[in-house]
C-alpha cells in the first residue's frame, strides 16, 4: 500500500535531533570490510536504507553482517566471501549506486564482479565512465552483460597513473578501494577530498593500507598484499546536519543538531551566517536558529570540497525563498539538480531556472542545455500543495517547504527519504511538526 505524508505547515521546528554516521561514508566502509582477512567493526551506523542495501549485497557475497542489538554497531566478517549470481545481485539493481564500489574489493577477493544497472537519486545522468576508465587502467576487463556489467581481474590488478576529469567522490573511492591491494604504486590526480573520503582513507589505513594525501588533490597509494579488519567510528553526517540547519531557518525555528561537526561544515556555516541564520557551536553539536527579522539574499555556488557541497543546496533554496530580495544559486556539480524547484513554485515560491552559469566561475554545464542556475526572489509566502518526493535531498526540501507553508500538503514517495535520513518522521515529530503518515487510497 502506498503511503502519503500529510503535513500541516506554519509551525517552526524546535528541539533537538541527533545525527549519526555519514550516509556517504558508512556504505563504503562496509564495502571496504571485504578487503580484510579478519572481521571489521563499524560504529555509529545509522538505520538508513542504504545500509540495508549494502548489507544485502555483502550477505549474498558470503560476508556476514551482525548488528549489535544495543549499540547498532556492525561486525562484518568476510571469511567466507564468494561470488554471487547475477540474478541475486540484480535484485538490488535500481536501489543504490553503491554496487559500483564493490568492483575493486570483489576483484581482489574472488576475481570478478557483476554490477547491476545502478539507481540512486535522479539528478542528471550520473554516468559511471570515470569508474570504468580507472578500473581498465588497473588492468580490469569490463564486459557488458544483460542488466549490468561484468568486471574481472583475469590478468591481475596493477598500480596506475590516473587523472580524473572531475574530482568525483565515487571515482576517487573506486581508486582507493582498488589501489590498496593492486600490485605497485597508484597516483591519482584531481582526486575528491571530501571529509567522507578522508574518513575512508582512515578506515583503509587501519586495515594496513599505505595512502599518502599530497597537496593539489593528489593521492599516492602503495599497494600491499594483505589487509586486516578495522574498528572504526564513522564520522557524523554533515549533510543531514546542514539539512536540519536549513529547516530551522526556513520554518523560523531553533534546532540543536547533536553530533554536527563544525570543521566539516565550515563552508555551510559561512553561508548560513551571511544569510542571517545564527548558530552556536556547543559541546555536543551545533544549535541552528532563526534570530528573527529578515533573512538576506545570497549568491551561492556549489562546488567540490572544501566548497559549498551540492547536497546542501536544495534545503538552502527553501530558506532562500524566505529571504528578502534576489538570490542566485549556481549548481556546478550536477547538471540537473533543480527539478525539485517545480513543487516549490507550486507552493508559491518565485524561482526561475537558467541555462547560463550565473556565478563567478563558468562550469562544465555552461555551454550546454542544462538548467543549472536558479534565481530565487523572496520573501514568498508559501502555501500547501501535493507533491511526489523526487529524490533524497529534493524530497527533504519539499517537506521543509510544506512545514514552512500555510495550510496542508500531501507528499507521496516519502520512503525515498529513508535512504539517507535516519528516523526521519520521528525526528520531524520530535521537532513539533504536525505530520501524519497514512495509507493512500489507490
Ligand atoms: C557522492 C555523494 C553525493 C554527492 C556527490 C558529490 C555518495 C553516496 N553520494 O555521489 O551525495 O552529491 O558525491 O559530492 O557518497 N561523474 C561522471 N562520471 C562518473 C562519475 C561521476 O561524469 O563516472 C560526474 C557526475 O555525473 C557528477 C560529478 O561527476 O556530475 C560528481 O559526481 P560524484 O562526485 O562521482 O558523485 P557520487 O560519488 O555519485
Automatic annotation (TrEMBL):
Uppermost EC category: transferase
EC annotation from Swiss-Prot or TrEMBL: 2.5.1.7
Q: Which SUPFAM superfamilies match?
A: EPT/RTPC-like
* One biological process term in Gene Ontology: cell division
- Tell me the compartments it is located in: Cytoplasm
Which residue positions are annotated as catalytic? 121
Question: GO molecular function, one example?
Answer: UDP-N-acetylglucosamine 1-carboxyvinyltransferase activity
Name the catalysed reactions.
phosphoenolpyruvate + UDP-N-acetyl-alpha-D-glucosamine = UDP-N-acetyl-3-O-(1-carboxyvinyl)-alpha-D-glucosamine + phosphate
Q: What is its main location?
A: cytoplasm
Note the Pfam families from the entry: EPSP_synthase
**List-wise, which residues carry 2-(S-cysteinyl)pyruvic acid O-phosphothioketal?**
121
| Pathway annotation | Cell wall biogenesis; peptidoglycan biosynthesis
Entry GO CC: cytoplasm
Q: Which CDD domains match?
A: UdpNAET
Residue ranges constituting the Enolpyruvate transferase domain according to the UniProt record: 8-428
Q: Which UniProt keywords apply?
A: Cell cycle, Cell division, Cell shape, Cell wall biogenesis/degradation, Cytoplasm, Peptidoglycan synthesis, Pyruvate, Transferase
- Is Cell wall biogenesis/degradation among this UniProt entry's keywords? yes
- Residues annotated as binding UDP-N-acetyl-alpha-D-glucosamine: 97, 311, 333
Record-annotated residues binding phosphoenolpyruvate?
Answer: 23-24
Query: To which protein family does this belong?
Result: Belongs to the EPSP synthase family. MurA subfamily.
Function recorded in the entry:
Cell wall formation. Adds enolpyruvyl to UDP-N-acetylglucosamine.
Q: What is this protein called?
A: UDP-N-acetylglucosamine 1-carboxyvinyltransferase
Taxonomically, what lineage is the organism?
Bacteria, Bacillati, Actinomycetota, Actinomycetes, Micrococcales
Q: Which gene encodes it?
A: murA
Amino acid at each position: 500500500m502506498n503511503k502519503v505524508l500529510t503535513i500541516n505547515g506554519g509551525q517552526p521546528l524546535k528541539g533537538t535531533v541527533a545525527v549519526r554516521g555519514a550516509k556517504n561514508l558508512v556504505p563504503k566502509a562496509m564495502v571496504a570490510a571485504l578487503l580484510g582477512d579478519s572481521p571489521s567493526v563499524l560504529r555509529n551506523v545509522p538505520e538508513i536504507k542504504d545500509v540495508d542495501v549494502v548489507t544485502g549485497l555483502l550477505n549474498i557475497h558470503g560476508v556476514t553482517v551482525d548488528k549489535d542489538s544495543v549499540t547498532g554497531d556492525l561486525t562484518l566478517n568476510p571469511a567466507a566471501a564468494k561470488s554471487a549470481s547475477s540474478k541475486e545481485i540484480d535484485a538490488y539493481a535500481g536501489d543504490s549506486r553503491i554496487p559500483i564500489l564493490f568492483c575493486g574489493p570483489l576483484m581482489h577477493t574472488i576475481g570478478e564482479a557483476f554490477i547491476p544497472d545502478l539507481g540512486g537519486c535522479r539528478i542528471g545522468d550520473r554516468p559511471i565512465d570515470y569508474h570504468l576508465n580507472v578500473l581498465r587502467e588497473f588492468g580490469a576487463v569490463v564486459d557488458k552483460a544483460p542488466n549490468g556489467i561484468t568486471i574481472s581481474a583475469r590478468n591481475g590488478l596493477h598500480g596506475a597513473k590516473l587523472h580524473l576529469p572531475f574530482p568525483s567522490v565515487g571515482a576517487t573511492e573506486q581508486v582507493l578501494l582498488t589501489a590498496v591491494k593492486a600490485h605497485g604504486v597508484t597516483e591519482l590526480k584531481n582526486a575528491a577530498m571530501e571529509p567522507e573520503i578522508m574518513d575512508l582513507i582512515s578506515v583503509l589505513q587501519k586495515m594496513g593500507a599505505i595512502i599518502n594525501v599530497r597537496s593539489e588533490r593528489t593521492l599516492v597509494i602503495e599497494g600491499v598484499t594483505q589487509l586486516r579488519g578495522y574498528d572504526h567510528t564513522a564520522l557524523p553526517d554533515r549533510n543531514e546536519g546542514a539539512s536540519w540547519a536549513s529547516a530551522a531557518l526556513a520554518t523560523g525555528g531553533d534546532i540543536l543538531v547533536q553530533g554536527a561537526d563544525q570543521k566539516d561544515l565550515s563552508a555551510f556555516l559561512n553561508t548560513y551566517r551571511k544569510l542571517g541564520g545564527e548558530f552556536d557551536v556547543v559541546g555536543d553539536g551545533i544549535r541552528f536558529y532563526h534570530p528573527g527579522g529578515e533573512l538576506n539574499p545570497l549568491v551561492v555556488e556549489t562546488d567540490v570540497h572544501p566548497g559549498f557541497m551540492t547536497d546542501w543546496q536544495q534545503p538552502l533554496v527553501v530558506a532562500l525563498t524566505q529571504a528578502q530580495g534576489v538570490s542566485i544559486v549556481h549548481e556546478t556539480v550536477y547538471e540537473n539538480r533543480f527539478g525539485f524547484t517545480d513543487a516549490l513554485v507550486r507552493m508559491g515560491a518565485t524561482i526561475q531556472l537558467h541555462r547560463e552559469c550565473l556565478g563567478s566561475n563558468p562550469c562544465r554545464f555552461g555551454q550546454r542545455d542544462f538548467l543549472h542556475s536558479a534565481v530565487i526572489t523572496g520573501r514568498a509566502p508559501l502555501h500547501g500543495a501535493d507533491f511526489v518526493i523526487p529524490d533524497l535531498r529534493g524530497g527533504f526540501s519539499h517537506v521543509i517547504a510544506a512545514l514552512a507553508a500555510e495550510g496542508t500538503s500531501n507528499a507521496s514517495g516519502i520512503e525515498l527519504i529513508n535512504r539517507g535520513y535516519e528516523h526521519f518522521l520521528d525526528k520531524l515529530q520530535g521537532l513539533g511538526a504536525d505530520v501524519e503518515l497514512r495509507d493512500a487510497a489507490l
